[in-house]
Amino acid sequence: MSPTNIFAPASTPADSIFSLSMFVILACAVIFIVVSALLGYAVVRFRNKHSDDRTEPAQIYGSTQVELAWTVIPILIVIALALASARVIASVQDARRPPNALEVIVTGHEYWWEYRYPALNIVTANELHVPVSDPAHPTPTFLTLLSANTDHSFWVPRLAGKTDLIPNHPNSMWIDPHEPGLFLGQCAQYCGTQHAKMLLRVYVQPREEFNRWVEEQQKVPHGSTAEAVSSNAVSSTGQRVFESTACVNCHTVSGTPAKGRFGPDLTHLMSRDTIASGAARNTPELLRLWIKNPDAIKPGSKMPAMGLSEPDLDAVTAYLETLR
Amino acid sequence: MSTNTITLTEVPVISRPFTLRLHEWVTTVDHKRLGILYILYALTFLIVGGIEATIMRLQLIRPHNDLVSPELFNRMFTMHGTTMIFFVAMPLVFGFANYLVPLMIGARDMAFPRLNAFSFWMTALASLFLYFSFLGGDGLYGGGGAPDVGWFAYAPLTARTFSVGHSTDYWTLSPLASGFGSIGTAINIFATILYMRCPGMTLGKMPLLAWLNLTMAGLVILAVSPLTAAQLMLLVDRYLGAHFFDTQAGGSAVIWMHFFWVFGHPEVYVLVIPAFAIASEIIPVFSRKAIFGYPVMVMATVAIGFISMSVWAHHMFTERMSSGANTFFVLSTMAIAVPTGIKIFNWLATMWGGKIRFLTPMLFCTAFLFQFLIAGLTGVTLAAAPFDWHLGSSYYLVAHFHYVIVGAIRFTLFAGFYYWFPKAFGKMYNEALGKLHFWLFFIGFHLTFDFMHVPGLLGMPRRIYTYEPGRGWDIWNVIVTIGVFFQAAGILVFAVNLVWSYFRGKTAGNDPWDAWTLEWSTSSPPPAYNYAVIPTVRRRRPLWDLKHPEDPDWRYE
Fold first, then answer.
1. Where are the domains of chain B?
2. What are the residues whose beta carbons fall under 8 Å from the beta carbon of B510, sequence distance 6 or more?
3. Do A188 and B348 count as a contact with CB atoms less than 8 A apart?
4. N or C terminus: which one in chain A shows less Cβ crowding within 10 Å?
5. H/E stretch holding B321
6. How confident is the model at residue B140 (pLDDT cuts 50, 70, 90)?
7. Please, are residues A244 and A258 in contact by the beta-carbon 8 Å criterion?
């Protein structure tokens, strides 16, 4: 089964859309069957069977009764469908935010996602972690959607419909996933060259697991403390290279001089399964390739090839491997 | 009704030198020649836009394909969309209106023949702007090539920050120039229909085609103007430091969306209403019955025109307007289904009890009815805002609007080509090739656009140059791409048929279809002045009354 099937909802907004969509599809299917059957009948029954028959059929100019019927019935169907839609619009868009909701600020960049958890003091990128929400005691996650540059759209089909991230126009949406697991999606509003590889990964975790993830993210990373670095010559060279090149202009590693905001926060890079916004798995080989030549993985991405020497590439990769 | 040609024009004209004939065509103000120019121009760009679509489909045939770069793919969808709307669909619509409206209302030309020529050449200039970008887009800044901002060019991607070089400028100039052309033609069509009708042809006795084109012209004037204004604003943003859409300086990306879609949605009806017009002429003639419920058809058309001006923001459901605004646009959008449904039922009732002749034009019109039914219903699913939060910007949406533009508009335009070809050139097209074209295109259309709905339902967004494996999208994309080849083969057969019939077709005569509207009373092709004596009409089907004095319309109208 497709991991991005809109008909496999796992969260309340997606559930409400699913039930509405079944109603709308049913209504449309009935109309389709009736009208196409009439059309099929007309095509078969009223085709001119004898091509030499030049007499004209009876001319009928209209009928107020039937025309009234096929005006009034569609009006009734339209009212029913519009009311059903209005109900779901209100229930999803105007949902009250419970006090125990988790807040995440999502910022769309070219071409990656930044996640900030203001209450937890966590900054991460590309892989969103949220707790499972028990339907009996919902703990939804509310997303505030911002954009740092062009328009984007946050769409994880099994969790909710899409909402656009528009500069100067903060939006919001919410999810309350009922089951743990990895939910996939991707940017759904054209945002530039690498719109295609601006992938979304949402990790829904049971509460204890989520809390453990939070603790890990809140720690100052092991690799950036001075004594830990000195224990490994290669990674300490890597850190020196990292901090003395343009890397620090775009990336943050907390507790170090690297404080850039243009690219993803790398403080806990090794806690992530993927790099380049989901475009590649997070393995040492791919990470090295990504630093050496980003275009090999994601042509047109904003990460420049830094032109590092081979030993420096090894060292920087080794340093990044320590950021757990 | 009297004789309509002066025999003098039948004297064979000795072939003149090519340059002289070219000069005549370039300087012409004859509505028929301009109509043919519009159509030839559109058919040329149909091939260009088709090649762009084929490149995209080949790239998407498998995941992680690297046939083209993301930059080229993004250019292709931008150019495909802009080309197909501004240089294929609109010129075809204007071409048919230009050719047919004066003939069908018994006029000798459009109200403003020179404005007509000006409008056509503005449209031609617009395409030069767009396609020159392939050469000139690089500009001084090196961010080059054709525009890659998408055909609706959402801000702030078009701002100088994100779009260096001149590619976006060429994109902006193109709808700007064609906008002037479109507005000029629309004013012309509007004035022609209101003031140039022959004696006796009251508004209520016009052919439906004239009514529908009147509505279309009104919509063009209302809808294209905001687009033209927005292009000027964008140019001012880019070159004079204004901040209408420049979000980095406090401008609003959302304002651009409103400007664009207040054009963009009525635009769909600008294109589909003339398609309805063609169907409303062909279905009665090939069913051998009068159109069912003429007054209701007129009312439904005008109602569609009005309502279509108040539905634009359904393109922005995912932008998150307030729940009240969303509900309003759900209701207004769904309301359009009512007059549209009336039209489908009335066409169906026209066929009901008739003696339908399934020649090529009628085959295309029948397929149109079936496909427009589906397009309308998928439109209703998209109108339900919460459902649109999934479907909007997905391949389901792409499939839906291609169902409208190809399945409804293109199919009726093909029907129109075959129906009026004998009138325009005096030669019959080849029926066997016509049917072959129909079946190839019908199969190709359904392979491509039926199956294109599925990846959208499985989460595939539009405008991605490649996609991840394992999402269940692969097989559907293969089928969609296969359909392209059937469509291309159909277009090839169509082109062969047109060229072959033009030179070798059988002489058609004035009235090959035994039809009822005025254009069939003059010669084929019609003389430059259309009618030697301006006809006088008393009924909606002037030729029916002539042919059937025993059962005239006036007893019933």
1. 7-555
2. B520, B521, B522, B523, B524
3. no
4. N
5. none
6. very low
7. no
Task: Write down the pLDDT at residue A152.
Answer: 97
Is CATH 2.60.40.420 correct for A222-321?
Answer: yes
Confidence class of residue B44 from pLDDT cuts 50, 70 and 90? very high
Do residues A173 and A106 lie in contact, with contact meaning Cβ atoms separated by under 8 Å?
Answer: no
B-chain residues near A168 (CB < 8 A): 247, 250-253
Backbone angles phi, psi at A122, to 5 degrees: -120, 140
**Other C-beta atoms lying within 10 Å of the C-beta of residue B85:** 21
Question: What residue ranges do the domains of chain A occupy?
Answer: 222-321
Q: Does B474 touch chain A (CB under 8 A)?
A: no
Over residues B65-70, the mean pLDDT reads 93
Both tokens assigned to B395: 């391949």
pLDDT above 70 coverage of chain B, percent? 96
Instruction: For residue B65, give the nearest of A201, A196, A304 by alpha carbon.
Output: A196
Partner B, chain A 85-124, Cβ-Cβ below 8 Å: 85-86, 88-90, 92-94
Q: Could you give the angle at the alpha carbon of B262 between the alpha carbons of B255 and A82, nearest 5°? A: 105
Question: Minimal CA–CA distance to A284: which of A218, A235, A240?
Answer: A235
Beta bridge partners of A108: A113, A147
A80 close contact with B: CB closer than 8 A: no
Q: What CATH number does the domain located at B7-555 have? A: 1.20.210.10
- The span from the CA of B396 to the CA of B387, in Å, is 11
Scanning B531-550 for CB atoms below 8 A from A yields: 548
| Nearest Cα residue to B539 out of B522, B520, B552 | B552
| Host H or E run for residue A165 | strand A163-165
Residue in chain B closest to A301 (alpha carbons) equals B70
- Pairwise CA distance, residues B14 & A151, whole Å: 62
- Amino acid present at B222: L
- Neighboring chain A residues of B348 at a CB cutoff of 8 Å: 35, 38-39, 42
* pLDDT top residue among A196 and B135: A196
pTM score of the predicted model: 0.94
> Do B224 and B94 contact (CB within 8 A), yes or no?
no
Q: Do B55 and B65 contact (CB within 8 A), yes or no?
A: no
d(CA A282, CA A305): 18
Nearest neighbour of B253 by CB, restricted to A62, A78, A151: A151
Token digits for B432?
A: 């066997």
Is residue B4 scored above 60 in pLDDT?
no
pLDDT for residue B14 is more than 50: yes
To the nearest 10 degrees (0 to 180), the angle between helices B431-451 and B474-504 is 160
For B467, the token pair is 């996609």
Residue linked to tokens 């009512």: B338
* Residues sharing a CB contact under 8 Å with residue B73, sequence separation 6 or more, in sequence order: B55, B56, B59, B465
Q: Rounded CA gap, B311 and B335, in Å?
A: 9
| CA atoms lying within 13 Å on the CB side of residue A274 | 21
Q: Residue B2: its pLDDT value, please?
A: 47
DSSP class per residue in A129-195:
EEE--BTTB---EEEEEEESSS-EEE--TTT---EEEBTTB-EEEEE-BSS-EEEEEE--S--STTG
CB contacts < 8 A, A to B, total 287
Distance in angstroms (rounded) separating the CA atoms of residues B483 and B34: 34
Low-confidence ranges of chain A (pLDDT < 50): 227
CB contact under 8 A, A48 and B337: no
| A131 and A141 Cβ atoms separated by less than 8 Å | yes
Contact A17 B387 (CB under 8 A): yes
Q: Output the six-digit token pair for A174.
A: 């919410």
DSSP-derived pairing of the beta strands A141-147 and A102-109: parallel
SS3 category, B298: helix
Among chain B residues, the shortest Cα distance to A163 is held by B318
- Whether A57 contacts chain B with CB within 8 A: yes
